[in-house]
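lol forgot to send this yesterday, sorry. struct tokens for the thing we talked abt
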């Protein structure tokens, strides 16, 4: 089986940021998947499950209510590795173009008094939330984005050349 593109990114070199994971054309539409990396994989601890779940609810609610962007949002959800989220939007904007939106979304978490949709009727695991830690992670990530808004590493996947031998073994050049 072929290694899917998101697994071919060098996770030892990636930093928190907003990366274009893939751009797809579906009929007349372009759809872009963004890798919104909140922590540094394999270096920093992953976001705990309850905080990640709360961030999913809070940021999804913000994105789907933002007057400028709500009609562009297709999906917001956590990565299985708990180091970030996937955001799927209509269109093909560069990742840098959604930085302000994500800063606002993560800053909105700081003012939250509760987690939207955290009831048995609205959520499949309504007891698994941690608003306090969600606020901590949100503030940390928004601060990071603001401090690194001019750093190309925040918006471009690490460039690593891979040598692939005839028998299929991969080696990193960096």
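and heres what i got for the seq, position by position
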């Amino acid at each position: 089986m072929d290694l899917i593109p998101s697994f071919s990114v060098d996770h030892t070199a990636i930093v928190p940021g907003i990366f274009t994971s893939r751009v797809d054309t579906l009929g007349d539409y372009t759809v872009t998947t963004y890798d919104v990396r909140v922590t540094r994989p394999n270096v920093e601890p992953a976001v705990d499950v309850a905080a990640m779940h709360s961030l999913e609810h809070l940021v999804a609610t913000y994105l789907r209510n933002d007057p400028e962007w709500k009609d562009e949002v297709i999906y917001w959800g956590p990565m299985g590795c708990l180091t970030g989220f996937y955001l799927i939007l209509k269109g093909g904007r560069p990742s840098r173009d959604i930085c302000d939106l994500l800063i606002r979304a993560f800053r909105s978490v700081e003012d939250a008094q509760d987690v939207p949709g955290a009831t048995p009727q609205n959520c499949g695991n309504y007891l698994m939330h941690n608003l306090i830690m969600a606020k901590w992670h949100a503030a940390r990530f928004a601060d990071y984005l603001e401090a690194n808004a001019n750093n190309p590493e925040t918006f471009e996947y690490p460039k690593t050349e891979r040598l692939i031998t005839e028998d299929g073994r991969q080696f990193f050049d960096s």
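The first strand starts at residue 17 and ends at 26. anyway ping me if u want another try
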